[in-house]
Amino acid sequence: MNAMPDPSCHTAVPPLAVRDLVHCYEGSNVLTGVNLVLQPGSVLGLIGRNGAGKSTLIRAMLGLLQPLSGTATVFGEPALKLGDASKARLAYVPQQPEALAWLTARQMLDFVGRFYPRWDQGFADRTLERWQIPPNKLLARLSPGERQRVDLIRALASQPELLVLDEPAAALDPVARRELLREIALRAGESGTTVLFSTHIVSDLERVASDVAFLHQGRLLMHCTIDETKERYGRLWLPERIHYAAPTQSLSRRRHDDGSLSLVVERDANGAWPEAANLPGARVDALGLEDLFVEIAE
Amino acid sequence: MNIKRALLLPWQVAHVAVRWLALALFGAAVVGATAFGIFSHQPDMWVRTAGVIGVAEALIGSSCLMNPVLLAIDAHQLRMPGIERQAMAGVLLNGVLGSFAPAVVIGWFSGHVLVLAVFVALFCVGGFLWSLLPRYAGLVLYLAALKATMFTSWVPGPGKAHFLAWALPALVLGLVLVAVCWRRWVLAPNPYRMSRRSPPVLRLGLGAAVAGRGPHSQLNRRHPWLQARADLRGCGPRHPVRSLRVALGGSYQPLTTMGWLRQSVLVIAAVAMLVAWIAVMILQGEAARTFSGILHSDAMTFLVAGGVCVSIIYASSCLGHLRLRWSCVNAELPLLALLPGLGTGVKRDLLRASLWPPLRILLLAALLALALVTRLSGRAEVFALLAPISAAGYLVAFTLLIFSGQRPGRWTMLGLNSLGLLLFGGGLFALPFSSTGGASALSVVLLWGLFLIAWLALAAILLWSARLGWRGLQRRPHPFLSN
Lengths: 298, 483
Known about the structure:
The complex is a heterodimer.
Chain A: E1 16-25, E2 28-38, E3 43-47, H1 54-61, E4 69-74, E5 77-78, H2 84-88, E6 90-93, H3 105-113, H4 121-130, H5 144-157, E7 162-166, H6 174-191, E8 194-199, H7 202-208, E9 211-216, E10 219-225, H8 226-232, E11 233-238, E12 252-255, E13 261-266, E14 283-286, H9 289-297
Parallel strand pairs in A: 3-8, 3-9, 6-7, 7-8
Antiparallel strand pairs in A: 1-2, 1-4, 4-5, 9-10, 11-13, 11-14, 12-13
Helix pairs in contact in A: 3-5, 4-5
Chain B: H1 3-13, H2 16-39, H3 45-62, H4 68-77, H5 83-110, H6 113-132, H7 135-150, H8 163-187, H9 200-203, H10 205-211, H11 217-221, H12 240-248, H13 257-284, H14 291-295, H15 298-325, H16 332-337, H17 346-375, H18 382-404, H19 410-434, H20 441-475
Helix pairs in contact in B: 1-5, 2-3, 2-5, 2-19, 3-5, 3-6, 3-19, 4-5, 4-8, 5-6, 6-7, 6-8, 7-13, 7-15, 12-17, 15-17, 15-18, 15-19, 17-18, 18-20, 19-20
């Protein structure tokens, strides 16, 4: 199910926005001038290979790291200097959460809940029970999947307007993963919660996201709706004899053993494929989201 | 077998900083103690000199020299031939060299090479055993050494007749025990799986790193009955300091009375054992028939040295805990950074939450030391007072540096480590000399002059580091950015 963004919300302040974000670790660039705006009510799936910079981007967007340059805002406030009001409106679940391992699940939810004005204790209790998490066991003693689910409960019980999840399904079994996706879709559809989640699992993205952003080697290669990816991008195949006509702008370019060339290309503003697509022998194949991801990432 | 390679192996396995620190410590102990022994004119000073070198040997034996056991374990599990033997040979060769070389030097002046070598080797084997035996056995070893220093007529020291009669068999027995323990851990099917019987070599330092244990491994290892329970009463936006203490965890978190008892039961048991042991020794009364006698006995020197080490270890463990928390990007930092209600004074509250609980304990240690110092006439016991104070200085400066994300430069760290080593290590080694008045006036003046300069330099560097940390923290938009 694709959550539909509420068009009326588009005039509001974007819950998350970054401009010209640059960051590097030990001399190598992790983010290279990333620009991204998350529209209210949208469910954005951030996809990319391992080490593409997804977690860094998310952390920079939320003010959890100080980027080398660029700006990040949350509900219009600088991410690094968020006020309590903005913090109360957002929830974030990191990849493999490890916070407060010395508390039990119940203690952790009780402790954190005291800080959120709209905390739903009933939801926390019910979900703990429904997801069969032992409430009086130390978090350190729970499995990674259980830890992840406790942190998801923590995030959802605060009733956030903006939910940011970094690889939320990585440690979950298929049943828990499906429940989580259902919860996200429900929150987005019924409460208008804006969601940003990163993932490797393309099927999750297709199931729940309204938009997709593809991050590759620290650069945001595309950002559009899920439906657009199918219509806007395609694989242009050119036999060896017409290589010269290959467009210079493409998302990926690969030469095959037989000398042919395949490129991931994008329609122009008028909806037309590059001119080379019209040459005799050239062919444009439609790409599913997973194929598109693999073509670009390889 | 390549002897040179075997000799170098324990040092190659050790972390580079630990390697140089250990070598510097041993070198300083040998040179300092030998020089002190030569310049003092007491007839039994060479025993104290060997004792100081022995303590250094025991420290190195329990830290650096035992690391090859990890190599032997991995080599055995990977079925790699030859390495196990090389590792064992490396440990033995270093032990023999570390015991005999200083003994030859001191023996040159005093003429008791064999006695001194056996004496130092006993310390070395003690270090090995502390490393390879379970933790509680380490405490027993410490108590045994404490008892040996008080009951010198039962256990003749190296300056007395019949020393070799018990020392040589004890040394052989110790070596056999080392071999048995070594074999046991190398052949164990899953040696890195922690239990109460796991030895320090697998629990600490390189062992912990090799085992790949996460930050919460101790929580996982503890029996549920021994788990501390946080006291969440009063937490919330109205009490940010208390809430931050809960979020910092470890020794920072407020505990319920039952939680505190659960967490401290092992420490309480160990302290009770120590106190009972001392009480028994007082009742049996030999070396120390009066309270004053106990205060001036060598056993008290041992206790003071133990207390100094504990205060330093405590400060280091607090800093290690904070450093770990501030390096995890998926733990408390994101939670705290996005937690509403902590208010605008969060930096100040964080400092209060992170500094006051450990400083309170170090202050208590300093007061205890002060009480002890006022009862003593020995000059080096002042060191017992300065240790918790300087540990507090380290704690404040490095806490600020951690929160600010600042890292002192290489030279600053080198200066701090060298001075720390000189003061803590040198102070420990100086205790046996100056507390009994065995040293000459000139050497005592030189020693204290050197110490005074070193303390002042250390204080200056710590102040500079704290200033660097404070400024860095002020520059940070919020204190929950990972380093």
